Amino acid sequence: MDFYQLLGVSRSATQDEIKRAYRKLARELHPDANPNDAQAEARFKQVAEAYEVLSDPEKRARYDRFGSSGTRMGDPFAGSGLGDLFDAFFNAGARTDAGPQRGVDLEVVAELTLEDVVNGEAKEVTVRTAVPCDTCEATGAAPGSQALRCDQCGGTGQVRQVRQSILGQMVTTATCARCSGEGVTISEPCSDCSGEGRRVEEQTYVVDVPAGVGDGATLRLTGRGAVGRRGGGAGDLYVQVRVLPHPVFRRDDDDLLAEFRVAATQAALGATIPFEAIDGEIEVDVPPGSQTGDLIRFRDRGVPKLRGRNRGDLLLAVMVETPTDITPEQEELLRQLAKERGESVKEPGEDSILERFKSKFA
Questions:
Q1: How far, in Å, CA of 261 to CA of 271, rounded?
Q2: How many Cβ atoms are within 10 Å of 261's Cβ, its own excluded?
Q3: Stretch 173-186: mean pLDDT, rounded?
Q4: Under a CB-based contact definition with an 8 Å cutoff, are residues 71 and 31 in contact?
Q5: Is the pLDDT assigned to residue 91 strictly greater than 70?
Q6: What's the chain's average pLDDT?
Q7: What is the pLDDT of residues 264-295, one digit of tens each?
């Protein structure tokens, strides 16, 4: 049995490489991860034995010179215990500190208009959360009483158990069930919060929305989440941004797009037309001969860039509108224009093709 091969390292491996290899194999082969697997259990014991030798410079030197016969290991799991060896690397996942624990994080949605995004606004959000109990000052103990040190864990918040196994002593550490890891118990709980040290209420907070924030972004308010039990710190409040659709503008990254309706005569001859932009009125210069789909760009009239001082652009898509409610005088003027341009149009009173088709089968 070659200890180096067991750990999957070369004979020139450093102590850090040996340690990393052992940790990886120990996680894979640990009996808790492979219940009722005798083969994994045997390999785990071999891997631990190899690490016990190779992690000690003196034992490793004897092993390199004489092989396994040169080491007098005995039972590598006796004394300190396999649990202690494993805990030294992985901390066994147990709590290492007693006392109140931090509260949970919360999430709320803030609905914004496009104007809010462009201007940057302070918005209020309301959330139902846990707040400190004023009656007991967040201790959980009734006024006039106090919390006592837990007699099961001695105030550490942890209990350790040692049991014998075929691999030697197994030491496990767990959160104390009596005090929930807080290290104290309360004999007279506060009647207003039932000993929790906190109550559930609605709270309203102000969120500073940065100009240019996007739909779906998340803003964090540190310490605005729920408080923990009996004086535990507060979690964070995460604000999910939801930007409502705008009736006129559509956002494309930092640009704003909108339709700009222009009469046919204005599109043909050119015109200057007022338009209500997202942040105030502007004058739009329509070039003569403009067509539907042409874009008119206004620099720095879009959405502010979230990380910068500039803004995107405003793009207006020209939509040429054909008049439908014309007077007889206006119709005559249009006919004269068509005649001058040599364009054929329907004669006055002429039925449409569809109406003539219908008349044949009436």
A1: 12
A2: 15
A3: 82
A4: no
A5: no
A6: 83
A7: 999 999 999 999 999 899 999 999 999 999 99
**131: left (phi > 0), else alpha (psi -120 to 50), else beta?**
beta
Alpha-carbon torsion 17, 22, 28, 32, what sign? negative
Q: Answer yes or no: is pLDDT of 66 > 80.
A: no
Render pLDDT for 293-335 as a digit per residue (tens, 0 to 9): 999 999 999 999 987 789 999 999 999 999 888 899 999 999 9
According to DSSP, the β-strands at 184-185 and 148-149 are: antiparallel
What are phi and psi for residue 215, nearest 5 degrees?
Answer: -60, 130
Instruction: Give the tokens for residue 321.
Output: 């509108």
Long-range contacts formed by 85-93: CB under 8 A, 24+ apart: 85/48, 86/26, 86/30, 87/171, 87/173, 89/22, 89/23, 89/26, 90/23, 90/26, 90/27, 92/172, 92/173
How far lies 259's CA from each of 241, 263, 276, 314, 319, in Å?
26, 13, 12, 11, 7
Domains (range + CATH), the chain? 3-76 (1.10.287.110), 106-243 (2.10.230.10), 250-321 (2.60.260.20), 331-360 (no CATH)
List, in order, residues 6 or more apart from 36 with CB less than 8 Å away.
Answer: none
| pLDDT value of residue 38 | 80
Contact 326, 334 (CB under 8 A): yes
E strand or H helix at 164: strand 158-165
**What pLDDT does 266 receive?**
95
Distance separating alpha carbons of residues 92 and 95, to the nearest angstrom: 9
What tokens appear for 181 in the block? 């890891």
* Coil/strand/helix, residue 271: strand
Cβ neighbors of 306 (< 8 A, separation 6 or more) are 210, 211, 212, 213, 214
Contact 183, 156 (CB under 8 A): yes
pTM of the model: 0.59
The DSSP line for 206-235 is: EEEPPTTPPTT-EEEETT-SPBPGGGPPB-
Which has the closest alpha carbon to 314: 276, 346, 342? Answer: 276
